């Protein structure tokens, strides 16, 4: 079972890496397809909305199996995009708390398989795929979702991380990205690793036969979960510190280089 993050792993992330689809290099496409041809389960595992994950599955010609989306809150059928499993949480308490801490924040909540509800206009991958419904904050607070993205315009990633890391929201897991003022919230206990472990058992893959490659702080649990975790060369120090191996950066087709060690 080979598990691959998307942004910063399959392709070199840029300032717009959370936006529209970016093509995968020829070398990386060939390497991933070579893995799939061996009969190995290739699982894309991303923070992206399911509808924003499908273009990558199509480009890689992955037409069977599963993909993990929304940082582990959603599992989809790779062939159809149909949601197989999802973990939702109520937005009432989190938004009430966040409005106090971040009064000018913009909230984008997933409507799985459909699109998003947003309290403002944000250029983000989630708003490029599926329906975007603009709502008032109070209306959003009455809903439930699989993942809530919190955008803090005019601030930096470290500022948002500091604002959220010193506080806890009951029954919610928060993941911050230091390179941009965005945080992703999911239900407590939801991680890429948790969903992958359930999938591994379902597929009958031995724990020793798992490989994962990623670059972000939301990949840390996934890299620890895998029998062999590979961090991209463009990963933050905290990600590289827990990896079994560090490969070249995505800009240098590091994923293709790493996969070629096991799959010719």
Note the main sheet: 6 strands, mixed
In total, how many domains does the architecture comprise?
2
Calculate the mean pLDDT score and round it.
91
Name the structural class.
alpha/beta
Q: Tell me which CATH architecture of the largest domain applies here.
A: 3-Layer(aba) Sandwich
Tell me the radius of gyration: 17 Å
| Strand runs, count | 16
First and last CA, distance: 16 Å
Spans of at least 5 consecutive residues with low confidence: none
* CATH fold naming of the largest domain: Rossmann fold
Strand content: 15-25%
Q: How are the strands of the largest sheet arranged?
A: 9-8-7-11-13-12
CATH class of the largest domain: Alpha Beta
Q: Helix count, per DSSP?
A: 9
* Net shape: globular
| Order of H and E elements | EHEHEEEEHEEEHEEHEEHEHEHEH
Helix content: 25-40%
The CATH homologous superfamily of the largest domain is called HAD superfamily/HAD-like
Question: What's the helix and strand layout?
Answer:
Layout lengths: L1 E3 L21 H12 L4 E3 L5 H10 L6 E4 L4 E4 L5 E4 L2 E2 L1 H10 L4 E6 L3 E4 L12 E4 L2 H5 L2 E2 L2 E4 L5 H9 L6 E6 L4 E6 L4 H12 L7 E4 L5 H6 L2 E4 L5 H6 L2 E2 L7 H6 L5
Parallel strand pairs: 1-2, 1-14, 8-9, 14-15, 15-16
Antiparallel strand pairs: 3-4, 4-5, 6-10, 7-8, 7-11, 11-13, 12-13
Keywords: Hydrolase
Organism: Mycolicibacterium komossense
GO molecular function: hydrolase activity
């Amino acid at each position: 079972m080979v598990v691959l993050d998307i942004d910063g792993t399959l392709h070199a992330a840029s300032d717009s890496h959370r936006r529209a689809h970016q093509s995968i290099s020829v070398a990386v496409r060939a390497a991933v397809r070579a893995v799939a041809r061996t009969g190995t389960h290739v699982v894309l595992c991303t923070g992206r909305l399911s509808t924003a994950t499908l273009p990558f599955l199509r480009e890689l010609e992955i037409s069977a199996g599963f993909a993990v989306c929304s940082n582990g809150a959603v599992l989809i059928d790779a062939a159809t995009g149909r949601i197989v499993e999802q973990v939702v949480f109520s937005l009432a308490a989190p938004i009430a708390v966040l409005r106090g801490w971040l009064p000018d924040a913009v909230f984008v909540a997933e409507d799985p398989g459909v699109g998003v509800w947003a309290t403002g206009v944000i250029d983000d991958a989630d708003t490029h795929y599926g329906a975007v419904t603009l709502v008032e904050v109070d209306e959003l607070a009455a809903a439930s979702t699989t993942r809530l993205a919190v955008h803090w315009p005019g601030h930096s990633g470290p500022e948002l991380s500091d604002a959220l890391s010193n506080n806890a929201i009951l029954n919610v897991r928060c993941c911050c990205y230091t390179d941009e003022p965005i945080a992703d919230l999911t239900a407590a206990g939801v991680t890429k690793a948790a969903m992958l472990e359930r999938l591994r058992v379902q597929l009958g893959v031995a724990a020793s036969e798992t490989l994962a490659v990623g670059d972000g702080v939301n990949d840390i649990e996934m890299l620890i979960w895998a029998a062999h975790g590979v961090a991209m060369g463009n990963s933050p120090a905290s990600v590289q510190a827990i990896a079994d191996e560090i490969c070249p950066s995505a800009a240098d087709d590091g994923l293709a280089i790493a996969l070629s060690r096991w799959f010719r």
